[in-house]
Every structure is written in structure tokens, then in C-alpha cells.
Amino acid sequence: MADETNNEVEVAVETVAAPEGGEREARGAGRGRGRGGDNRGGGDRGRGGRGGNDRGRGRGGEDEGGEELIEKLVHINRVSKTVKGGKRFGFAALVVVGDGKGRVGFGHGKAREVPEAITKATAAAKKKMVRVPLKEGRTLHHDCKGRFGAGKVNLRSAPAGTGIIAGGPMRAVFESLGVADVVTKSVGTSNPYNMIRATFDGLVNQTSPKSVAQRRGKKVADLLGRGGASAVEAEAEAAAITE
Hints:
- It is a single chain.
- The chain is α+β, with helices and mostly antiparallel strands.
- It has three domains: 1-63; 70-203, Double Stranded RNA Binding Domain; 209-240, no CATH class.
- The protein contains seven helices and eight strands, in the order αβββαββββαβαααα.
- It has a four-stranded antiparallel beta sheet with strand order 1-2-3-4. Strands 5-6-8-7 form a four-stranded mixed beta sheet.
- The protein is elongated.
- The protein starts with a helix and ends with a helix.
- The model is unreliable at 7-62 (pLDDT under 50).
């Protein structure tokens, strides 16, 4: 009997509350649709946000030419600033970045932490990358000298199998550049900043037979044949030059 009474009471309550519940459901449905619209909008915004992130990564790939870059940390220096109450320490990083196919750049950055300093230096290096013509994709076309401040460097092309004969900062530059055979000598300062700047001073003055021929309005074979080589050898060597 108690169960039947409870059931009747519940039915009566449901019957009485039905109109209000219906209104609530209607209002709830309206709010639900409104929220659903918001959710759908939010979903669009969410998808747009994810798309924006994807596009951001795409832009990064385009900035890097769609290629994996070689990043080498050359030097980290701890710097300090004296302030009221003590010293405030920070770090300065020097980084060399290259694609291993003739493009290289360097940059430096400062921050309170080492990883952030390296990130800043890497970003600066990517913005200042330069293209250097390479002979057969492995060495320099000709010998050259570079200078910056008290730093002087001599760069010489080398036959296949020589390897990279260079000091620490200069070795990082040539490994990132993609040079396999080179002989170098640093005279003067051992400051890594000045050594790398002197190295870049010599690299930016590198010229290839193709660029010289275009500037002078001649054929590459004409320039190569002036060294005593036969016309056939000059033609073959000119055909082998890609840059």
C-alpha cells in the first residue's frame, strides 16, 4: 500500500510540475541551442586555433627552407651585472647554424638562463644566413683571407680526403656549411666571436667561376682554359661546376 501511495504521489507531482518542467525544458533547450551555437563557434575557433598553430609551424618550415638545419653551440659566457644588493648573473651564447649545403649564419643572444640564451642566438643566426659557393659541394673554390679586429684567418681549399683542419669556432662554421675538405689557420686573437666574424669575412668574398663568367660576359670554359688546360678539359670541368 505504501508503494502504491508513493507512486500516486510521484505521478501527481509529475503531472503538476509538467508545464513548468516543459517551460524549463524549452528554456533549457533554447539555452542549450545557444550554448550549442557557442560550442560550435568555439569548435570553429578551436579548429582555427589549431590551424593557426599548424600554419605557424608551416611558416617556420618555410623560413628554414623546409630543410633541417645544423645547429652548433660554439661558446657560452657567464656575464654579471652589479646592482643594488649584489650581482645579477646572465648567460651569453654564440651559435652557428647551417643547412650543410652552402648556407651558414651565426648569432648570439643573452638571457638569464642558458636555454633561453641559446634559443635567442639560434633565432638570430637563422635570420643572418649567407650562401657560400662550394666547389664540388665539398671545399672552397679558392684561397682567401678574412679579418675582423685583431682576428685574422687564412682559408685554403683542399683536395678530397683532407678533412676539416680548423680550430673549434672555425670548425663549427665549416661543419654547418657542409665543407668536407679545407685547411685553415687563425692568426691573432683566440676570441671565438672575432674568429667567427673573420671567418665569415673571408667566406662572403668567395666567388665561383660561374659568377665571374656571368659578370664578365664570358663562358666558364673560357676562364678555365686560361690556366693551360685543353679545351676539352675546360669544357668538362665547366660542365661539372654546378654553382
